[in-house]
Hints:
This protein has helices spanning 69-80, 112-124, 187-206, 221-226, 236-250, 252-258, 283-286; strands at 41-43, 46-48, 53-54, 85-92, 104-105, 128-134, 168-169, 183-184, 211-216, 267-270, 295-300. By secondary structure, it is α/β, with parallel strands linked by helices. GO terms for molecular function: FMN binding; NADP binding; NADPH dehydrogenase activity.
Amino acid sequence: MGNTxxxxxxxSGVPYFTPAQEPPAGTPLKTDSAPTLFKPLRTRGVELxxxxxxxxxxxxxxxxxxxxxxxxxxxxQFALQxxxxxxxxxxxxxxxxxxxxxxxxxxxxxQIVPLKRITDFIHSQNTKAAIQLAHAGRKASTxxxxxxxxxxxxxxxxxxGGWPDDIVAPSAIPFAEDFGTPxxxxxxxxxxxxxxxxxxxxRAVKAGFDVIEIHAAHGYLLHQFLSPLSNTSTEVxxxxxxxxxxxxxxxxxxLFLRRCPSGCGSLLPSGWNGITNLPGxxxxxxxxxxxxxxxxxxxxxxxxxxx
Length: 307
């Protein structure tokens, strides 16, 4: 046998040795005959090696909004198994925006570091990383759904780290009998919330995410603005601000670009009667529900550097 130098190359971007995934797990050996699900997809500057997407799933395991080794293992396994895009769970833009006291958060800079560990590992496996930014609104301050042996939510009291007296929503209407009664957001609070979404998105770019999703479905805060069941405000000025704020959030990519250099990425909407400009992807992958009142807004952060 000749002295051929065959090297087990190291993956880049992590401070320890793990083999470079060339080609990445989840790549078909014969691309010509591979099903569409296994074919690469390039959209808005982000290329996935296949069309398997791990949805954002709450794990109720964070500490003061900070992710831990649990999340590194939990999310890293999906990258190891070859998913094209791996989402971090619903991540609150402010403390009172969490669903439970143990939810992920990105309202302060210290939360960037544990997220960066996760995106670095995901990238080391030649997989893309995504995050869902969220605010629970009137569905906040609840305990994990499995506690008490029921899928029904229960209010998290102050004694267990909840904030039952600081829940916010467009109107002071509780989601259900066992949920806390929110206070109606003021005009100034709404303006501050829009800024918090922007600040969290900038932190997400610093943490290395390739895709950012704005959670605007499932009865959480942004969805509450859109529903007459949860938004009954009759104040003309407040309604104007609400509409303006929602339009701003729909054009979140444009707002975000003001805080980042050109080339940061562009808004990628989904949930508008299916998915636009994404041929070949099942609408169940990115779209939450096929209706106007249930949508997710996504944009890529390709080539971005946060200011």
